[in-house]
Specification:
3-stranded antiparallel β-sheet, Immunoglobulin-like, DUF4307, elongated, 6 strands, 2 domains, single chain, 2 helices, alpha+beta
Length: 127
């Protein structure tokens, strides 16, 4: 008597996991490429260059803003902090003009002695 075999009786089922895995890998690679290219070229970039306390009620900040769309103006929120990292001064500065790259020097008035300054955020606004 011959040995019983399910493969002979029902046939071998095809495994689809390789095809599914390849499809998911292709989708993931496409998404990763898109995300990398999209976030590598943001609409606005900003960089803090330096800051220097001018007095007990003001601090000077020097920073650079690069916009991809020069038709839109940029608004940057600049903050000054004291020794305990409390915000003691804050201003919004609008940067407009035809230049894509702008370097600014701004004086931030404060209510207490400032120790450092930073760029909180920058965003594009339509004119």
């Amino acid at each position: 008597m011959a040995e019983f075999s399910y493969v002979q009786r029902y046939g071998k089922a095809r495994s689809q996991w390789k095809l599914i895995a390849a499809g998911l890998a292709l989708i993931f690679i496409a998404w990763l490429s898109w995300a990398g290219l999209h976030h590598a070229n943001p609409a606005i970039r900003y960089e803090l260059i330096s800051f220097a306390p001018q007095s007990s009620t003001s601090i000077e900040i020097r920073y650079e803003v690069t916009r991809s769309d020069t038709k839109k103006s940029a608004t940057c929120t600049l903050v000054a902090r004291d020794f305990d990292k409390n915000v003691v001064g804050e201003i919004n500065e609008v940067i407009a003009g035809p230049d894509a790259r702008s370097e600014k020097i701004t004086l931030i008035a404060t209510r207490a002695k400032p120790v450092n300054a930073a760029i909180s955020r920058c965003y594009l606004t339509s004119e």
